[in-house]
Amino acid sequence: MSSLVVFPFKSEDIKVFRKNVREAASHPRVGAVLCVGYEKNACYKEIEAAIPEIEKENNKEIRLILQERLGDKRSGKGDGMNTALKYFLEETSYERLHFYDSDIETFSQEWIAQAELSADDGYQVVRHYFPRASTDAMVTWMITKTGFAILWP
Hints:
globular; alpha/beta
């Protein structure tokens, strides 16, 4: 079983972002990590420079791509997530797809392990819980809810 971990990003704390990519790449059930950037800004260039070292440390592929502009409404994380979903379906043979925010300070291999265990139990979609305000991550949830409903009606 092999999974693709995705980090959509715009402008992040590069130290936290690098740590999260390393954590994901070091998990034994992760086959590759995909970083989907909003634009080629300073954050994009810093993660691009960090990728070769992380790949070498973990013997895993780390891909960095720009998000596509999908639709004509609002650009943002939804485009990044949908770009990753398209990449997952068209460019890989991985069995599972994980999305994580690149700025999660508490991110660790345990996040991936918990999702993998739930998926092993037969769940097609697994959503993590962590304490937050009721309005946090609304775009992420709205995109995943409708996007994945297309794949798994």
